[in-house]
Specification:
- The complex is a heterodimer.
- By secondary structure, chain A is an alpha+beta fold.
- Chain A folds into three domains: 76 residues, no CATH class; 111 residues, Cupredoxins -  blue copper proteins (Immunoglobulin-like); 90 residues, Cytochrome c-like domain (Cytochrome Bc1 Complex, Chain D, domain 2, Orthogonal Bundle).
- Chain A is 39% helix and 19% strand.
- Chain A contains seven helices and twelve strands.
- In chain A, the strands form three sheets. Chain A has a five-stranded mixed β-sheet with strand order 3-2-1-5-8, with no helix packed on it. Chain A has a five-stranded mixed β-sheet with strand order 4-10-9-6-7.
- In chain A, a hairpin with a 5-residue loop joins strand 11 and strand 12.
- Chain A is flat.
- The termini of chain A are far apart.
- In chain A, 32% of the residues are buried.
- By secondary structure, chain B is mainly α.
- Chain B has one domain: Cytochrome C Oxidase, Chain A.
- In chain B, helix 14 runs parallel beside helix 17.
- The longest helix of chain B has 37 residues.
- Classes of the chains: A alpha+beta, B mainly alpha.
- At the A-B interface, helix 2, helix 3, strand 7 and strand 9 of A face helix 4, helix 11, helix 12, helix 13 and helix 14 of B.
Chain lengths: 322, 537
């Protein structure tokens, strides 16, 4: 027991030196994660194989022979038990310290990071860039510069997860949390929502597009010039981006929510018994305050969407064409 | 003396006999197990192909995994151990005629039965629960799911479990037969005792957490409502303060039962009894200080994450001691591979996979990647389904003679074992890969690159379902028409095997005087070979 305590003390004393050993110019948490993971996998696979081999060996070797009585009368063995307490403890503390170091990299944001604000909503991601640009479900960043993502949520809990960068964090309404990643290679990565948030949860994906710095600047310039979409295209994009198709559909099938097919001008019976015509003002009102006009036969699960008049106009323009 | 009496419904409804209540628990929890399995089939079907997903729909998928999770954890795993095994084994193993408060015990069961009916009804009542078994706000506050039903079910279960905990802790402390010292208690009793202690201290916190949820939803308070200044993550702290130790509520009795099976069929004294007991106590107490590993990615301060990360992985040490001691118990034994032993060995092999992958969830760096992915799903399914479920089946087979008076079908049980072992490897191992590559959990839609993996695991899932159907058939057919069992078919030395099969309602004609431990196999000083270390009844 004493030796274990001495060992623990030694490990704890070693920690600060490990901590100052990092801090090289450009840390890549993905690489650290992968190294840590390989170490972990090697250790646990070896341990598992060892235990399983022992179990199988004992099972075969000490199978009861005909006429054999009881097994040997053994109480235990203090030395053996100390060994299989101490060895796992050492391995575990080693892994724990290594993992702590990876975690430290994961939460220590480099000072020169490019900052974007991401807000989760049911069901999508609003992205705001420092230059004032906005995108939905798409984050474009320049390659080679660390990116800090400030997270919050508009409604319920969401979580922002980019597997390629081994990083995730909860998006909490009323609070700001953050993650950072180091996009060392150009490419397109997927970000997922990992906190269950309703029927559109599995459709709440975003693209992380890592671009060449010059391409990124060109893209920003184009966005700023106001590459304006027609109301119809904008409406179509909003319907897709906002996750409306998680419940509604455009094919006319009966799903969790009324179909968009032929919605404009449709005679609709509401849950409170009123019959209304689904005209522009009805659709606009329903988008802003769905609770007031739940359709009969459907459960009220649509969240309110706070869209601008222009956006609502775009949506209704698109819906009319279905 | 007992038989020749026909079946009487009244006798079962008003039963206070711990063995009858045990059987009631078993029937009820197996019923929910069937419902949970059907819902698992829905989930696996929806993983099969995009067309199946469209047919099932997001809402029904979400309701399915909610009731599947709640049902399997709260109505199958916990009750089969703390309801069935605790009721059947504790009085028999400590040499008592019943529990301390038999009528309170009946109340526990009927509160549980009521909760069960409501939980199954939750599938069809309006406002179906689509919130996950965790029911995190604010989503659970904004959806139209019937949270009042959810909270009421948790409270009913809580009343049942708290009454049970008080009852069984009192029973073990005060009703041990003369000579049944703490050092002679069966490890199954120690494990169950640890679980009841966790229930006693944990459930009030869960009850508080869900009550605040109820107030928020229907009375306009704002504990969790962020738009009014509430703290949504607070719920997760309170929830996991109980719900993580709840894992050990399932694991500790499973560990205890494994010790019984391994020792009996190896015909060898349990290796390192004292350290086994210490390990159980350590896990009981450490279990309350690790809940934050469910919240590493929830904006909790880093130092709290670091402390609980170390506490979490340190639980691997006492767990490791148990595993190594089981293996050492087999060493120089005289091992007979009857079905329960096979299930116990399968349990160890699967449980070590689950335990090792659990360390990755406790480690900070790895969990930031794995949190809420299929890695976690694969982890707790290897632990609960199948290793713990496998062990529960093994235990049911082992004590089958004690509560039915009959033997199960041995060769069928062995065949099912291989089906379940291989089925669970196919069903869960590929999901670790999906999680490693970043597949989030609770996803109705499966991104195309993961479709292949999910198709493979669905095959494993259906193997498991086949295994369950055969298991239930084995239980039922054997209970009705199995071979009549002798008092001690295994030659076991634990106290319950001194009693006839099935056990008469009064258990012990005279309270036995205990003269030795339950695992005295091969003790050279013991004169009567094959006789339990207790005076005859």
């Amino acid at each position: 027991m004493k030796s274990i305590l001495t060992l623990m003390a030694a490990v704890l004393l070693l920690l600060p030196s490990l901590a100052s050993a990092e801090g090289a110019a450009l840390v890549d948490p993905v690489k650290s994660w992968d190294n840590h993971w390989n170490m972990f996998l090697t250790i646990v696979t070896t341990l598992w194989a060892f235990v399983t081999a022992l179990v199988i060996y004992m099972s075969l070797k000490y199978r009861r022979k005909k006429g054999q009585g009881d097994g040997a009368y053994i109480h235990g063995n203090i030395l053996l038990e100390v060994i299989w307490t101490a060895v796992p403890l050492i391995i575990i503390i080693f892994l724990g310290v290594q993992s702590w170091n990876v975690y430290r990299q994961q939460i220590t944001v480099p000072k020169d990071a490019y900052e974007v604000n991401v807000e989760g909503f049911m069901w999508g991601w609003n992205v705001t860039y420092p230059e004032g640009l906005k995108t939905i479900n798409e984050i474009r960043v320049p390659v080679g510069r660390p990116v800090k993502v400030n997270l919050t949520s508009k409604d319920v809990l969401h979580a922002f997860y980019i597997p390629a960068f081994r990083i995730q964090e909860e998006a909490i309404p009323g609070r700001t949390t953050n993650i950072w990643f180091n996009p060392v290679q150009k490419g397109e990565y997927t970000a997922y929502c990992t906190e269950f948030c309703g029927s559109g949860h599995s459709l709440m994906l975003a693209k992380v597009i890592v671009m060449e710095k010059t391409d990124f600047e060109t893209w920003q310039g184009k966005q700023k010039e106001g590459m304006v979409l027609s109301p119809l295209d904008k409406g179509k994009k909003l319907i897709a981006d906002l996750g409306c198709l998680g419940c509604h559909n455009i094919t006319g099938e009966k799903t969790a929510a009324p179909t968009f097919k032929g919605i404009s001008g449709r005679e609709t019976i509401l849950a409170d018994g009123r019959t209304v015509k689904a005209d522009d003002s009805y659709m606009a009102n329903h988008i802003k305050d769905p609770k007031s006009t739940t359709v009969k036969g459907y459960s009220q699960s649509m969240p309110p969407y706070n869209l601008s008049d222009e956006e609502i106009n775009a949506v209704t323009t698109y819906l009319k064409t279905l | 003396m007992e038989q020749a009496k026909g079946f009487s419904l009244k006798e079962w409804i008003f039963a206070t006999d711990h063995k009858k209540i045990a059987v009631l628990y078993l029937i009820t929890s197996l019923t929910v197990f069937v419902v949970g399995t059907l819902l698992a089939a829905v989930i696996k079907l929806s993983h099969w192909s995009p067309a199946m997903r469209e047919l099932i729909g997001a809402k029904f998928y979400n309701v399915s995994f909610t009731i599947h999770g709640a049902g399997m954890v709260l109505f199958w795993m916990i009750p089969v151990f703390l309801g069935f095994f605790a009721n059947l084994l504790i009085p028999l193993m400590i040499g008592a005629r019943d529990v301390a408060f038999p009528r309170l015990n009946a109340l526990s069961y009927w509160a549980f039965a009521g909760a069960t009916i409501l939980a199954v009804l939750a599938l069809v009542l309006p406002g179906r629960l689509d919130v996950g078994w965790t029911g995190y706000p604010p989503y659970s506050l904004v959806t139209d799911a019937n949270i009042s039903l959810y909270v009421f079910i948790v409270h009913l279960l809580g009343i049942s479990a708290l009454a049970s905990a008080v009852n069984f802790i009192t029973t073990v402390i005060t009703m041990r037969a003369p000579g049944m010292t703490w050092g002679r208690l069966n490890l199954a009793v120690w494990g169950l005792l640890g679980s009841f202690v966790i229930q006693l201290f944990g459930i009030p916190v869960l009850a508080g957490a869900v009550t605040l949820l109820l107030f928020d939803k229907y009375l306009g308070t704002n504990f969790y409502n962020a738009s009014m200044g509430g703290a949504p993550v607070l719920y997760q702290h309170l929830f996991w303060f109980y719900a993580h130790p709840a894992v050990y509520v399932i694991a500790l009795p499973a560990f205890g039962i494994t010790s019984e099976l391994i020792s009996t069929f190896s015909r060898k004294k349990i290796f390192g009894y004292t350290s086994m007991v210490i390990a159980i106590c350590l896990i009981t107490f450490l279990g309350f200080d690790v809940w934050i590993h469910h919240l590493y990615t929830k904006g909790v301060v880093a130092w709290a994450n670091v402390i609980q990360s170390f506490l979490t992985i340190i639980i691997g040490v006492p767990t490791g001691i148990k595993v190594f001691n089981w293996v050492a118990t087999m060493h120089k034994g005289s091992i007979e591979f009857r079905a329960p032993m096979l299930y116990a060995v399968g349990f160890i092999i699967l449980f070590v996979i689950g335990g090792m992958t659990g360390i990755a969830n406790g480690l900070l760096g790895t969990d930031v990647h794995f949190h809420d992915t299929y890695w976690v799903v694969a982890h707790f399914h290897t632990v609960l389904s199948m290793s713990m479920t496998l062990l529960a089946f093994g235990g049911i087979y082992f004590w089958f003679p004690k509560f039915t008076g009959r033997m199960y079908n041995e060769s069928l049980a062995k065949t099912i074992f291989w089906l379940l072992l291989i089925g669970s490897l196919i069903a869960w191992m590929p999901l670790y890969k999906a999680g490693l590559e970043g597949m989030p959990r609770r996803y109705w839609q499966i991104p195309a690159q993961f479709q292949e993996i999910f198709k493979i695991t669905a095959v494993g899932g259906f193997m498991l379902i086949l295994g369950f159907v055969l298991t239930l058939y084995n239980f039922l057919a054997s209970a009705i028409a199995g071979q009549k069992a002798t008092a001690n078919p295994w030659g076991a030395k634990s106290l319950e095997w001194t009693l006839p099969s099935p056990v008469p309602s009064y258990n012990f004609k005279t309270i036995p005087v205990i003269t030795g431990g339950p695992y005295e196999y091969g003790n050279p000083e013991e004169k009567l070979e094959g006789q339990p270390a207790a005076e005859a009844v």
